[in-house]
Design a protein that fits this description.
Blueprint (H helix, E strand, L loop, with lengths): L1 H22 L5 E5 L9 E8 L7 E7 L6 E5 L4 E3 L8 E5 L2 E6 L3 E9 L8 E13 L4 E13 L7 H12 L3 E2 L4 E6 L2 E7 L10 E4 L12 E5 L2 E7 L9 E6 L2 E5 L1 E3 L7 E3 L18 H15 L6 H14 L3 H31 L13 H18 L20 H15 L7 H8 L4 H24 L1 H5 L6 H9 L1 H19 L1 H24 L6 H19 L18 E2 L2 H9 L4 E6 L4 H11 L2 H10 L2 E6 L5 H9 L7 E5 L6 E3 L5 H9 L1
Parallel strand pairs: 11-18, 12-19, 21-23, 22-23
Antiparallel strand pairs: 1-2, 2-8, 3-7, 4-9, 5-8, 6-7, 9-10, 12-13, 13-16, 14-17, 15-16, 15-20, 17-18, 22-24, 24-25
């Protein structure tokens, strides 16, 4: 009797534990909409996002030998239709001889809802769905169930930045259909699939997941080999003969949806390692060099920025400051430290803002500030004032605009010159700097800020060396009459910089921005000439000029047009170039077409120099045509989330970036400073 009682108590305990497990969602899910205001006649993507707890997994649409995929029962109002769920790439998991197609990491299943054009704007659209799925460990499976609801209201279909970024990430994990049918053949128990796949395309541990049932034995081992532009997968046949549909994993969480038709299977080729059921798949993330090397790269990159065209006008300002110091050790060191402080603080501020925007879900890159019309407008007015100051049109006693340009050099002038140098120089990405700035968006905040500080120190390093090494300082020319002439000559590159900013403002905001910028230039010059007339008569004239200039900037920013949306249809400088599109790039690579892809921006001086000197040349154009090379251009002048993500994936946070995808072989990254010979060598080899 006691044994029977113990057995009953044990069964009761087991049932209680099972009920407790069943009540808890071990693969919890949530339903998310890309926008809560879908447009009538439009399509809305929703996501079932699941986050399995450690040791638990969910299932793909074809779960394999065991398990259960996601089952959905929708309750939708009239005028709303639902599409087929789209699943990301799973992994194989062998348990007790049974093959399972599972998800062990957080994943999202996407579904499109189509809204009829007859729906009225402002109409409430309640969406309800009952979801059933299975949560399993290696030893136990528990059914999961939940009711999901969405309260939608028809509107303009606008999508906010954070949901768009999240859904773009989820979409990138969804396999894409292959544009050509694969071939299949059955010989005895062998089932072979030949998939058209370029020899140059990357491939990491492929695996075939069958969607069609009763065609292949899921638990059978798979083998793979590559022969030319074909990938052949062989496994064991099972059940009925006939074509099979499925998913080919190609690595990095990416996959291709394929259909097959009977056909000949190529023979021979080289074997390729396939994914095994016990392989661990780590989340893909760019490998980062050691922090010390990254800091050194930022330092050297900042130093080399002084040789880039972006910084030439600012170097003139510092040359004036050093020449005015006349070799005085104390004054040179004081000004160099003030200049360094301005550069470093400016780099830290830019880095902090960029990291904050990315943490808030914004896809921004280095030099994001020049993608903002208001910043460009403010720099334009400032450069007009600096140009007028260098040309001798006015002086502000006790205050130096852009540098120690008055007859009394001071710390404040050097400090503001440092800030100006960082603002103008940082849009460029030079050698050694690209990897460091790309890593900054992946590192912890403290280490990333240390990188930005090293970049600033690198920019200021030449002037620190001159200030603290007597032999270098002794090489500087002595002050004299030439100094005033040199100052006036420096007004030319500053004026050209102002014109470049006006041109950039036009590119960002169209003719409206060009008009506002031109009026601001005229107003600023009128204020300067008025100040010059009365500067000796009123003590408060300098202060009044600063107030008036602030009013000009504030007013201009208020009436400045918004960034022009060109929907990616801006003209490309290279004839016949395609606008950047990750899907189109993947399609071209799948077809084996060689592609030259480069990223540029109107505010990137290095980019424009490379385009003029190496890319947009008759010999380069002729070379690309002879080789059948497609050219694709990513224009990062304005904010573009897709470009920002692509740059991040390649360890970059800004432009330029030059990539060549040959018909066969791996992608080749070209240096940031291009020549026609460098391009020709990359294409020919």
């Amino acid at each position: 009797m006691q044994r029977l009682l113990r057995l009953l108590l044990l069964c009761l305990a087991l049932l209680t534990a099972q009920a407790s497990i069943a009540q808890e969602l071990n693969v919890p899910g949530r339903l998310v909409a890309e926008t809560e205001t879908p447009a009538p006649g439009g399509t809305l993507t929703v996501a079932f996002h699941f986050a399995p707890k450690p040791g638990w997994h969910g299932y793909w649409e074809n779960p394999g030998d065991a398990g259960l995929g996601l089952q959905l029962e929708w309750r939708l109002p009239a005028g709303v239709a639902v599409g087929k769920p789209r699943f990301p790439v799973p992994k194989p998991l062998l348990i007790g001889g049974l093959m399972n197609h599972v998800y062990e990491e957080p994943h999202a299943i996407l579904v499109d809802l189509q809204f009829a054009p007859t729906l009225k704007t402002g109409s409430a659209i309640p969406v309800e769905v009952e979801a059933n799925w299975l949560a399993c460990t290696d030893t136990i499976c528990v059914p999961q169930q939940d009711q999901f609801t969405l309260k939608l209201v028809t509107g303009d279909g606008a999508i906010k930045a954070e949901p768009q970024r999240q859904f773009d990430q989820w979409r990138s994990a969804i396999p894409v259909p292959l544009d050509r049918d694969a071939r299949y053949a059955i010989s005895g128990k062998r089932f072979a699939i030949a998939i058209p796949y370029p020899a140059s395309a990357p491939l990491d541990r492929p695996y075939f997941f069958a969607l069609t049932t009763d065609r292949v034995r899921y638990a059978a081992p798979q083998s793979a080999r590559r022969i030319g532009d074909w990938l052949v997968i062989e496994t064991e046949a099972s059940g009925q003969a006939g074509p099979v549909e499925g998913l080919l994993r190609i690595g990095g969480g990416q996959g291709l949806l394929i259909r097959t038709a009977a056909g000949a299977i190529p023979k021979g080729g080289n074997s390729v390692a396939v994914l095994r059921a016990d392989d661990k798949l780590a989340a893909a993330s760019p490998a980062l060099p050691a922090l010390l090397w990254l800091l050194l790269g930022a330092l050297v990159g900042g130093l080399l920025l002084n040789l880039m065209p972006c910084v030439f006008p600012i170097l003139g300002l510092k040359a004036l400051a050093l020449a005015k110091a006349g070799g005085d050790e104390h004054e040179a060191q004081r000004d160099a430290l003030a200049y360094t402080a301005g550069v470093v603080l400016s780099c830290l501020a830019l880095g902090a803002v960029m990291l904050s925007l990315r943490a808030a879900g914004q896809e921004v890159g280095w030099a994001f500030q020049l993608q903002e019309p208001a910043v460009v407008f403010g720099l334009l007015v400032l450069m007009v004032a600096v140009t007028a100051n260098l040309a001798g049109l006015f002086e502000l006693p006790g205050f130096a605009i852009g540098g120690t340009l008055t007859r009394q050099p001071g710390i404040s002038g050097s400090f503001w010159t440092g800030i100006l140098a960082a603002l103008v120089a940082t849009p460029c990405t030079g050698p050694f700097m690209a990897a460091a700035m790309g890593a900054a968006i992946l590192l912890p905040t403290a280490e990333a800020m240390l990188l930005f500080a090293c970049l600033g120190i690198g920019i200021a390093l030449p002037f620190l060396l001159i200030a603290y090494i007597p032999r270098m300082r002794a090489m500087l020319p002595r002050p004299g009459a030439w100094l005033e002439r040199f100052r006036h000559l420096m007004a030319i590159p500053m004026g050209l910089t102002a014109l470049a900013l006006l041109w950039l403002l036009w590119r960002l905001t169209g003719s409206g921005g060009l008009l506002v910028g031109s009026i601001a230039i005229g107003a600023m010059l009128a204020l300067i000439l008025g100040y010059r007339t009365v500067q000796g008569q009123f003590r408060q004239a300098p202060f009044a000029l600063l107030i008036a200039a602030t009013v000009v900037i504030a007013t201009g920013v208020q009436i400045l047009p918004q960034t022009v949306d060109t929907n990616g249809k801006r003209e490309a400088a290279f004839p016949g170039a395609l606008p950047f599109d990750a899907g189109k790039l993947a399609e071209l690579r799948t077809k084996g077409a060689p592609v030259f892809l480069y990223f540029t921006a109107d505010w990137c001086v290095t980019c424009k120099v490379n385009e003029a000197a190496a890319i947009n040349r008759d010999d380069t154009i002729r070379l690309f045509r002879e080789k059948g090379i497609k050219v694709m251009v990513g224009d990062f002048t304005r904010r573009d989330a897709a470009i920002a993500r692509f740059l991040s994936e390649h360890g970059r946070s800004g432009v330029p970036l030059y990539l060549f995808y040959p018909a066969q072989g791996q992608v080749r990254e070209l240096p940031q400073i291009l020549t026609p010979d460098i391009i020709a060598e990359a294409v020919e080899n």
